[in-house]
Specification:
Blueprint (H helix, E strand, L loop, with lengths): L12 H21 L8 H9 L5 H8 L3 H4 L8 H16 L1 H7 L3 H32 L14 H28 L4 H11 L2 H14 L4 H22 L2 E8 L2 E3 L2 E3 L3 E7 L6 H19 L3 H9 L5 H22 L2 H10 L2 E2 L7 H35 L8 H39 L1
Antiparallel strand pairs: 1-4, 1-5, 2-3
Helix pairs in contact: 1-8, 1-9, 5-6, 5-7, 6-7, 7-8, 8-9, 9-17, 11-17, 12-13, 12-14, 14-16, 15-16, 16-17
Length: 436
């Protein structure tokens, strides 16, 4: 860390202000998670969610930091925004107008961001209405209804409340990105996941005191956690660097180029998108099984539970599919090859143009295979721990990938601020010496 490590962070006024702003905005988000939506029997809702673990509702509740389980004003969380962003990215490939906007620099990105906001509101309205209708059909195991006064009044009020909550979270995320440290949307998801850690620790201590978990298993799990986190950090920062050389060019009396650089290709280019999509698809039957009373559908939902072969094999297959699919959407070897050719760059031993694009695509395909194996291993880990060691919390999977990834990105941005400050100090000294 530039400038003496983390101890000097609060000695930089701008970075100190950004960190405090980020923490205050995250506190606002966590307060909103505990503000309930009117018209809900909280006790009956908690009883219903107790039997909904391992369904799509459980996945959404994890990303919302427990807001869906309480049906707070932030119950939808930031998932509508993420869904809208992913949809816009996919549409950019097939709609020429969006593709042109994505290449128009800052103005184009602002327009796409505006479309994403509109899409977020539309998705939030649809999801809010679906939740409102679904809540009216829910009941606790004892038969107590979740909604105290069902009807259109409750539905309209719920849609407006949840949509406004999602819009406010989206605004909070943008404010954190602009005025704070790190990516605001990612930090909000990070805060929601980390907020569940105290209850997990409490459950673990309860199991230890009751004798349901041995000290040996606990020590083994702690060692495994450290090893898995270290492994994720190592792989997330791993790159396959392709050497690129630039030809020398003479412009006027000066010579430019002639240097070598690298084209970095991340091992996990797709990030956390594949496990999110795969989990959503796999948990859909279990979610439907909680709402309908169809015997065969309930049988399918019962068979497709985390830990069973009918869950793990299709889950890993979907992760592989989305790793390749999302990498193909976000990284275009043809565009990279064209840009290299435009600026006089080439890969040693590879002809510019189509051959370069084919070479980059071949390398990317190979490292994506390793990335897919890595993501699958991390995501299958929770099922092994819960079935074999009776772990009382969801360790690993999408949640751990998000937490570690966001932590790495946030620390990197803090280092960037400190590095900028470091060079600004040198520039000021240089100007002062020059005047003298």
């Amino acid at each position: 860390m530039i400038g003496g490590g983390f101890g000097n962070i609060f000695k930089i006024p701008e970075l100190k202000r950004r960190i405090i702003t980020t923490l205050l905005l995250l506190m606002v988000y966590r307060v909103g998670v505990h503000i309930p939506t009117p018209g809900i029997d909280a006790t009956a809702l908690a009883s219903f969610f107790a039997k909904a673990q391992g369904t799509l509702l459980g996945l959404f509740d994890m990303f919302s930091g427990g807001a869906l389980e309480r049906l707070s004003v932030f119950a939808l969380g930031i998932m509508p925004y993420i869904s809208a962003s992913i949809i816009l990215q996919l549409l950019t490939v097939v709609i020429p107008h969006l593709e042109r906007l994505s290449k128009e620099g800052e103005q184009g990105r602002k327009k796409i961001t505006q479309y994403t906001r509109y899409g977020t509101v539309v998705i939030a309205v649809i999801q809010g209405f679906g939740i409102a209708v679904g809540l009216e059909k829910m009941s606790a195991p004892g038969g107590a209804p979740v909604v105290m006064a069902p009807g259109w009044g409750f539905r309209i009020m719920t849609v407006m409340t949840l949509t406004a909550g999602t819009a406010f979270i989206m605004w909070l995320g943008e404010q954190i990105t602009e005025r704070g440290v790190g990516n605001g949307i990612s930090l909000i998801i990070f805060a929601g996941i980390v907020a569940r850690l105290p209850s997990a620790v409490t459950n673990t201590v309860r199991l230890l005191s009751a004798g349901e978990m041995s000290i040996f298993i606990m020590v083994f799990l702690l060692a495994l956690m450290v090893a898995v986190v270290g492994f994720i950090v190592y792989v997330e920062q791993g790159q396959r660097r392709i050497r690129v050389e630039y030809a020398k060019r003479v412009i006027g009396r000066k010579m430019y180029g002639g240097q070598s650089t690298f084209l970095p290709l991340k091992i996990n280019t797709a990030g956390v998108i594949p496990p999110i999509f795969a989990s959503s698809i796999m948990m859909f039957p279990a979610t439907i099984g909680n709402f309908v009373d169809v015997p065969w559908l309930k049988a399918v939902a019962g068979a497709m539970r985390p830990g069973s072969v009918w869950w793990e094999l299709p889950y890993v297959g979907l992760i592989f599919f989305f790793c390749y699919f999302y990498t193909a959407v976000t990284f275009n070897p043809v565009d990279v090859a064209d840009n290299l050719k435009k600026y006089g760059g080439h890969i040693p031993g590879i002809r510019p143009g189509k051959n370069t694009a084919d070479y980059i695509d071949r390398v990317l395909t190979r490292i994506t295979l390793g990335g897919a194996v890595y993501v699958s291993a991390v995501c299958v880990l929770p099922s092994v721990l819960t079935t074999q060691f009776n772990v009382p919390f969801y360790f690993g999977g999408t949640a751990l990938l998000i937490v570690v990834g966001v932590a790495i990105d946030t620390i990197a941005q803090m280092e960037s601020h400190m590095l900028t400050r470091h060079y600004e100090g040198f520039l000021k000294k240089g100007r002062t010496h020059g005047r003298r």
